[in-house]
Structures are given as structure tokens and as C-alpha cells.
Amino acid sequence: MTFIESVTLDVADAAAATRFYTEAFGLDTQIRVRTSQAPTTGFRGFTLSLTVSQPADVDALIGAALAAGATTLKPATKSLWGYGGVVAAPDGTIWKVATSAKKDTGPASRRIDSIVLLLGVADIGASKRFYVEHGLEVAKSFGRVYVEFASGSSPVKLALYRRRALAKDAGVAPDGTGSHRITIGGDAEPFTDPDGFAWASGAGEREGVLDAAQSGR
């Protein structure tokens, strides 16, 4: 079964981005960064979500992110499905922090239960078929609205959402051009999906990150 080993974000300043993700979310091996000046404008077509156990944990992580330099896109609020908010990292990546719980059951912590990479796609059905053909197994599917793939032992889950719906959920306009500024590292041969999201082999991705870091010294 194909699964995600890591996610690499293209950022203008790799050292600054590394500091942010460590201070804000305590992430290290799951999220990698590399220096890139690839042009992009507007919505990059994806978001990353952190799922936690209770509202206090949402507030703790969002508070840490804002203190580290993030900006608010959607303040944390209650909804029918739970509690959550959306921030933009200094490098421009959109992060949602959410829980399905509506009440706290213990002291606040910054413990993350799961990380989900949500890709905004033009055609849910076509993208679902493409990923199944490339070795991913469907865990949840809600027609042409949302698809979640089985993650196995992967540190990052993959899900598909309609691009406009994903942008609305993130609190941004759906239009965007240029690079997605993300590379998905997996255990399969490199490929690019119908919406232009690139996958690299885990080993190749690690080498690319190392080369980028060394060239930026």
C-alpha cells in the first residue's frame, strides 16, 4: 500500500520555517522544509490539518503558532462538528487545528493526534481513481465531496476535497497560480497527480532537502 512518509514545503527561508514549526507545533520529521523561490500567488491548493483531543489543545497550538509568527485566517470557534481555527504560517502554508470534541476533559496540551494533508482537487472522482491506481486504499469516501485514504503507519494522512470547498474552509479565495510549493514523499516511484501535486520517493526527497539545505549555506 502506498502511503506518505513525509511532506516537504518550499519556503523562502528554511531556517526560519524550521524554527516556526518546532516552536508552533513541535513538528520535525513529519514536515520538512527546503529553500525555494518557485513563484506562486494566491491559494496553493492544499491545507494541512492538525487533529487534537479537545478545544483547549486547539487554543494551545493556535496560540503557540501566533506567538511564533503565524497570522489568523479563521479564529477558533465552535461549530456543529466541533471546535477549530485556521492560521497561515509565515511561509504561507495554511494550517487548520481542530477537534471533534466540544468540551475539555483535561488540562490543555500541545499533543497532536493526527496530521492530515488535504488536497484541493478539480474532480474528486478522477483524483480518487488516480490515487487508487497508484496504490492508495480508500478509507472513507463521501461521493464527489471528500475522500480519505488509509494511512497505515504513515505520520501523515491524505485526503481529497473540492478545491473551492477547501479554500472556503480555510477562509481564503480559491484562485491561485504557480507552484503548489509542496512535495509529497512516499514509498512509490515519483509521479504527479491530475492537479499537479508532485510525489517523490522518500529517499529522493531526503536527498533533495539535503541538497537544498547545503546550497543555502
Report on the structure:
The chain is an alpha/beta fold and 217 residues long. It has one domain: 2,3-Dihydroxybiphenyl 1,2-Dioxygenase, domain 1 (Roll), CATH 3.10.180. Helix content is 26%, strand content 36%. The chain has an 8-stranded mixed sheet with strand order 5-6-7-4-8-11-10-9. The chain has a 5-stranded mixed sheet with strand order 2-1-13-15-14. The chain has a two-stranded antiparallel ribbon with strand order 3-12. Helix 1 (14-25) runs antiparallel to helix 2. The chain starts with a strand and ends with a helix. 39% of the residues are buried. Residues 203-217 have low confidence and may be disordered. Residues 6-94 form the Glyoxalase-like domain. GO terms for molecular function: lyase activity. InterPro entries: Glyas_Bleomycin-R_OHBP_Dase, Glyoxalase_6.
What's the CATH architecture name?
A: Roll
Instruction: Give the H and E element order.
Output: EHEEEHEEEEHEEEHEEEEH
Tally of individual helices: 5
Give start-end ranges of low-pLDDT stretches. 203-217
Main-sheet strand order equals: 5-6-7-4-8-11-10-9
Strand content: 35-45%
Question: What does this entry show, briefly?
Answer:
With 217 residues, this protein is of the alpha/beta class.
What descriptors fit this protein?
217 residues, alpha/beta, 2,3-Dihydroxybiphenyl 1,2-Dioxygenase, domain 1, eight-stranded mixed beta sheet, five-stranded mixed beta sheet, 36% strand, globular, disordered C terminus
